[in-house]
Design goal:
The protein is extended, with a radius of gyration of 46 Å. Among the domains are: about 1-20 and about 440-550, Immunoglobulin-like (Sandwich); about 35-220, no CATH class; about 395-435. Helices cover about 35% and strands about 25% of the residues. The strands form five sheets. Strands 2, 3, 6, 7, 8, 10 and 11 form a seven-stranded antiparallel sheet that branches. It is of the alpha+beta class. The protein has helices spanning about 185-190, 225-290, 305-320, 335-340, 350-360, 365-390, 395-405, 410-435; strands spanning about 30-35, 40-45, 60-65, 70-80, 85-90, 100, 110-120, 130-140, 160, 165-180, 180-185, 205-210, 210-220, 440-450, 455-465, 470, 470-480, 490, 500-505, 505-510, 520-530. The two termini are about 35 Å apart. The protein contains eight helices and 21 strands.
Length: about 550
Amino acid sequence: MPSKPGFVRRVFRKFALPVALLLAVVSVAADGPVSQIAGVTKTNDTDSGSGEKWGRIGGREITYTVGNTSAFAALSWGSVAGQPPSAAFDNSVDSPGEVLTLDPASDLAGGIARWTGTAVVPLVNQPSISVPTQFMITVFTNGNQPVPLSMAAGGATPGLNLKLVDNFTVFMSFHAYHAGVWQPLLDFYDSMPTPPGNQPGQGGPVLTSFTSGFYFANAGTGLTLDQHDANITQRLNSLTGQAASIKDDTAFMRIDAINRLASVQNSVGQVQDRVGQVQNGVNQLTTMVQNIPGSQQLPTDLARTHDVKDAKDSLQQMLMILFGLAPCPPEAQGLCDNAQLINDLATQVSVDEIRQALSALATQTTVDQANQQLGALGMSVVNLEQILIGLSKESSVQEVKAALGGLASHMGVEQVKQRLNELGVEIAAIKNTINQPAAASLAVQVAEVDEDESDTRRWLVSTSLNGTPVTAGLTKLVVVSSRKRGQSAIGDVTSLARVKQLMPGLLEVEVEIHKQKLSDLSFMLNLQSAGAAPVRGTTLVAATAKGHDH
């Protein structure tokens, strides 16, 4: 069973940890760096090619398998000398802090290298801010054992000796420090009010880089003929694959271009057909008009603009004359004499006729007819009222009450209570199922080891599976600060933790508290066990410890 989270007293004590695997420094000149080399194969990379994975939650992992390295007197992998990691937020690596520096306190013997720097973050409608940045690599085997790193002169700086391992995984992550916690660099940038980025494919404005490579020295006088042929064959196969990919892309472009041209050609043909159909329609219309008996050739100016304007002006002048607002033109004097002007239509005679007609509308007879119709409506209202009263008589009300009483009978209430009891039993069964521990859960015991006036927090973590010690790795270290007002603050300080495997089933976890102000806080340790498979497991346990004020 996993141990429950709790608070333990800190007791100071230091341990001298044995290093199970040392990186031998070979005193021969190394060639390189090269991106790939015979005998070493990249078997997995969690980045899809976008280059963002190491700036997001979870980081980026690359796994290599090391085969036969007998052809090399020395073989290492690591950071390329003279090309340290970089991180910038303004689309250009142009300030000293944006080129990161290797931290001398890096736990190289534990397989951890850390570079630090600073970078300016442009913001919208407010001043830019400067934040600390870091890049970390952690190297471990498929069994979650740390692989020591070393500063090999003329080679990887730092790097690992590939003559001593048969497989290794590199975990890489960029972080930015803001609001008291280290955050994945790209997630931090997305959470800030930063300017809009570039279009897809143009890069930036956040730039991150880390250059790694292989350094090697041939054994004896060089490679054997077979080894040389194998090396050349491997490189040719790689180039052949790239050439095939380029060939496929070119063929696709050629096929796509031909298909698009064929589509355009079909569209042009359709347009030509439509134009021909319109021309045929015009010709048929012209022929039909010409075949009408007595018809003439169609005019070419059936609806010209000046014709419409002349018609409008003529109509306007005619209305002005009929209203008496304009004199009759001399050429139309005869027509005006026979026309009756509009203002003459409203003579006294017509007005008197309209008045007489209106007076006749409200005679006594029409008023009496209206009264009779209103009386009939009143009778209808009385009838409607009697009908409504009949609907709400005592007998109908009693029937409704009896029906409602039947719905809430004692029998119905008892059925509802019985169903609620059944639901309670089902919920209890579900709870028991949820609370059942995993058949093969990881048992964890945590003890904090420290002294007074220490600058570090240190825990010893014992892990076992079914009573047998098993190797486990730290996946996350979370710090929880309790506030008097408001909610507690939670931060991920995994990047600050130093983890050492003392023996199978025993880990030592250490984190600095003086510089990071992590005293008087609670911690949560998340662990994973690789189990029997060559991949890390999914069992998750947590333990919490609290320190004292200094």
